[in-house]
Design a protein that fits this description.
Length: about 675
């Protein structure tokens, strides 16, 4: 079969071993790594990705010792007793011809535990614990721990290890002046700052021999003040190569950096040029990373010689079969990671198991199982939003005969509104994925069809899934029927909006709508990379001389004056996702959106919106009011309790519960009900 993805599918020969293609599943903590009893689940999770065709997998971070724990009692490998559960993982991966590295991660001052250590005793802004400065003795002991952990990883069947040296973890803390303010041989010049990392690689190589992969994940762009320059990054890369690494992986930005590096508004492959710059100066294969989620982007990076391999982590949660689908020209079947972080990283930060918003089976492979049905039923799904599409396609995949009714002319529901928000263009992909699934699984789709219960029962369905979603909540206020009061749905569908706007309700949608209104009428294309870098203050020069690659941000003037309002007295946006909320808050702040809390809405008049704050009446002279005050469920198809019906009824997604309506629950609800039919 001819393929437009020849570079992705080309094996990589490392001399002593061969990786079957150029795709790497990057390290991502699922939460399953930390407890031995979860390893059967972890093995199923990695095994499925290996079966899906990926060439190389890197596990979530495992600490070389207690000081390196990210969380109390985190996954550690430093005794023979630690290796048994890992054998389940390596076996599950090797069975399908993929290779696997164990990542060794010492969190340094990022640890959420009291034993934290670092280069210098400087507290990080993202952990409450102040680190102790590592003594010479502790540094030498830690080097031995890394070597011993690598040796144990080899015994557990891993093909190699990855040393986590980026994202602001311990080795990155030593590498950069941002944290390393030591005066001894481990601090000061770049030669001294890199000594710890280089000695670790040397010690591991000596312990494990030549035929074992050592990958080093190096920060190619720190994005923090006092971070390294590109010249320093290259010097470190060359020294690591000399010390014996096999692969050089890319890390971008410290976790504490205030520049987004992976959220959905970051343009695809935004950082590949920095990796390409380093690649010019080393001979070991180099791996590109960050915001790469589809084959065209990966192929282009490889074809242009910017990297030898491409790493993705979240996209393999979204679709374990990404490589096989690419290899067999079924790219339109890929369930694309939309970089929302809602079910993966946001879960990790809440100490919950990571999974995926668009693929609720991720990390639940043994629990959410789609078995072919022995008794096909006639199933009606009413509502073509993501909940309905998820239910319909899973039920059909299992062998049921499914009809999906959608009242409007298109499927997608609330995702059709989300996809027009600047920076949320990836949401198009989810709609495309479900449309293809509807076709492939044989769901009968009836658009422009509003059905009632009598019609459904007349057609003789066995099971009826009500996924009729939500309607925006209207605002109850004096003057509330004025024509300049619009719902968020009307605005996102293109209603005319004035130049001075009050947005009522500061949930996810209030923030999204504010961003939508700040910019000129939105083009469906993602933001150009150069413009994005200017807006966030990222040095566009691949061989950047600025420290950490930071520059002064240049923000374009907003096209509207906006007030964002809420009744609560808490800071606006604190309920947004942990890993993406700060990006939205920063965007609105940069564009001078006025955020008011503790607001009572009094009346809408010709002059604007009257509100009360701190006991004072205030007139906001606005010409348009956009209501983003949550939603109400549409559930009139559901029979009342005790009512006799011919079919079994189920209700899912926003129709079931509008409060905290979210796509993660909607898609999972749909999949779970369909798995049980
Ligand atoms: P939401 O998060 O529930 O926010 C609704 C807002 O409306 C609240 O700020 C609430 O604040 C206000 N409100 C509620 N009832 C009101 C009333 N009767 N009158 C005036 N104000 C009222 O809902 P949403 O913004 O519509 O978002 C829905 C869901 O979509 C979210 O749960 C989220 O999961 C998802 N989403 C997330 C994102 C994101 O993370 N970026 C973006 C879009 C959507 P007060 O009560 O304090 O006024
Ligand atoms: Fe990607 Fe969102 Fe799934 Fe995470 S939850 S893997 S970001 S789609």
């Amino acid at each position: 079969m001819t393929t437009p993805y020849a570079n992705i599918l080309k094996p990589l020969h490392l001399g002593f071993t061969t990786i079957k293609n150029r795709m790497v599943m990057g390290s991502m903590h699922t939460g399953l790594e930390d407890r031995f009893y979860n390893y059967p689940k972890l093995a199923a999770y990695f095994g499925e990705r290996a079966k899906g065709g990926v060439g190389l997998i890197i596990t979530g971070g495992i600490s070389p010792n207690r000081q390196g724990w990210l969380l109390p009692a985190g996954g550690t490998m430093n005794t023979m007793g630690d290796i048994a559960p890992h054998r389940l993982v390596t076996h599950a991966v090797h069975k399908h011809g993929a290779k696997i590295l164990m990542q060794i991660l010492h969190s340094g001052r990022y640890g959420y535990q009291p034993f934290v250590v670092s280069a210098s005793p400087i507290k990080s802004p993202i952990s409450p614990f102040k680190p102790r400065q590592m003594s010479e003795k502790q540094i030498l002991a830690t080097i031995r721990d890394y070597a011993e952990t690598s040796h144990l990883a080899k015994l557990a069947g891993y093909d190699g290890v990855e040393i986590m040296g980026s994202e602001g973890y311990l080795l990155n803390q030593f590498l950069s002046r941002h944290v390393n303010q030591r005066q001894d041989r481990w601090g000061g010049s770049i030669d001294n700052r890199m000594r710890f990392a280089v000695e670790i690689v040397r010690a591991i190589r000596q312990k494990v021999g030549e035929k074992f992969i050592i990958c080093f994940r190096l920060s190619m762009l720190d994005l923090v003040h006092d971070g390294n320059t590109m010249q320093e990054v290259i010097a470190v890369a060359q020294a690591l190569e000399k010390a014996g690494i096999t692969l050089l992986n890319t890390g971008i930005g410290w976790h504490e950096a205030r520049i987004p590096t992976i959220v959905t508004s970051v343009p695809r492959a935004a950082f590949a040029d920095y990796t390409a710059e380093v690649k010019k100066h080393v001979t070991v294969p180099v791996i590109a990373s960050n915001r790469i989620n589809m084959p065209d982007t990966a192929e282009e990076i490889l074809a242009q010689g910017k990297a030898d391999m491409v790493q993705m982590a979240r996209p393999f949660l979204a679709d374990p079969y990404w490589v096989n689908k690419t290899a067999t020209n079924r790219v339109d079947e890929i369930n694309t990671c939309i970089a929302c972080n809602q079910a993966c990283l946001d879960h990790t930060f809440k100490n919950q198991r990571a999974t995926c918003l668009v693929n609720p089976r991720a990390a639940f492979e043994t629990e959410l199982v789609y078995v072919k049905t022995a008794k096909p039923k006639r199933v009606a799904v009413v509502g073509g939003g993501v909940a309905g599409m998820s239910a319909a396609t899973v039920a059909a995949e299992r062998g049921h005969q499914v009809t999906l009714f959608e009242a409007s002319h298109e499927v997608g529901g609330q995702f059709n509104l989300a996809k027009v928000i600047p920076g949320k263009e990836e949401f198009h992909e989810t709609i495309r994925y479900f449309k293809v699934q509807i076709e492939k699984t044989g769901v009968e789709l009836r658009l422009n069809t509003k059905v009632n219960r009598e019609q459904l029962e007349r057609e003789g369905f066995d099971e009826i899934i009500v996924a009729t979603g939500v309607v925006p909540r209207a605002l109850k206020i004096k003057g509330g029927d004025a024509p300049n009061i619009l719902s968020y749905a009307e605005v996102l569908r293109g209603a005319a909006v004035g130049h001075r706007v009050a947005v009522i309700g500061a949930g996810g949608i209030g923030f999204d709508v504010s961003e939508f209104l700040l910019k000129p009428p939105h083009q469906p294309q993602p933001q150009p990379l150069a413009e994005w870098k200017r807006e966030w203050g990222v040095d566009a020069e691949a061989h950047y001389m600025t420290e950490g690659g930071l520059q002064r941000a240049e923000v374009e003037a907003p096209v509207r004056e906006i007030y964002l309002l809420q009744r609560k007295t808490t800071p606006l946006g604190i309920g947004l996702g942990k890993t993406s909320g700060w990006v939205h808050r920063a965007q609105l702040k940069k564009h001078a959106v006025r955020m008011l809390r503790g607001v009572q809405y009094k009346a809408v008049t010709n002059e604007g919106l009257w509100v009360e704050t701190n006991g004072q009446d205030q007139l906001l002279r606005v010409d348009t009011i956009v209501v983003c005050a949550g939603q109400e469920s549409v559930k009139d198809l559901m029979p009342n309790e005790g009512q006799v019906t011919l079919a079994n009824y189920h209700i899912i997604g926003g129709a079931k519960l509008a409060a905290e309506l979210d796509a993660k629950r909607a898609i999972r609800d749909g999949a779970e009900i369909a798995a049980k039919l």
